[in-house]
Design a protein that fits this description.
By secondary structure, the protein is mainly beta. The chain has 2 helices and 10 strands; from the N terminus they run E-E-E-E-H-E-E-E-E-H-E-E.
Length: 126
């Protein structure tokens, strides 16, 4: 699976198109662009998408901004992430009521084999 970088960001950023599902259920959220963020510890999903999935909160945790400020308590859910023919089961995701995009952090990325081809601005999922 090859996905071109998104020009919605400056400079262009690597993304993947992902679907979401409650664990072991059929996909319930159709393909959405997800920003690949190798510097993020966790994966963030907009609260509205998690509400559509109706997945329960499994626990709450504290997150802080990349600048170390704005510590806040957030709910964590478990979802399956679908990428083309690959299903990544049971990924813990933070419910994000501030943002409107999916951010794939290292907890999900470490389960994938992907290649970021910066010169050609293509993300390739192996």
């Amino acid at each position: 699976m090859k996905t071109p970088y998104s020009y919605d960001y400056t400079p262009p950023a690597p993304i993947l198109l992902v679907g979401l599902a409650a664990p072991e259920q059929a996909p319930q959220v159709s393909l959405q662009p997800a920003l690949i963020d190798t510097g993020a510890d966790g994966t963030f999903v907009p609260t509205a998408l998690l509400e559509r999935l109706q997945v329960p909160v499994i626990y709450a945790t504290n997150v802080r901004s990349h600048l170390g400020q704005d510590v806040r308590r957030v709910p964590v859910h478990r979802v399956d992430i679908l990428l083309d023919s690959v299903r990544v089961p049971g990924v813990e995701v933070v419910s994000d009521d501030w943002g409107d995009e999916i951010i794939l952090g290292r907890n999900a990325l470490n389960k994938l084999e992907l290649f970021l081809d910066g010169p050609h601005q293509i993300t390739r999922l192996e």
